[in-house]
């Protein structure tokens, strides 16, 4: 999955696969996680957010099942 580099103190890059509704997030420490069953509007809001990290923590981190990539 192709990820887009974001300007964040905690996140490095974010990618989204619409076919599988999977959000992939790379963190500053190098870990990559895949969040499953994430609707496309959630990805769009994350990318439009003033703070990607705050939006991610408030709306995605504990709201969707995930796996380490």
UniProtKB/TrEMBL annotation:
Domain (KTSC) ranges: 7-64
UniProt xrefs under InterPro entries: KTSC_dom (IPR025309)
Top-level taxon in the UniProt lineage: Bacteria
Protein name: KTSC domain containing protein
Species of origin: Bradyrhizobium macuxiense
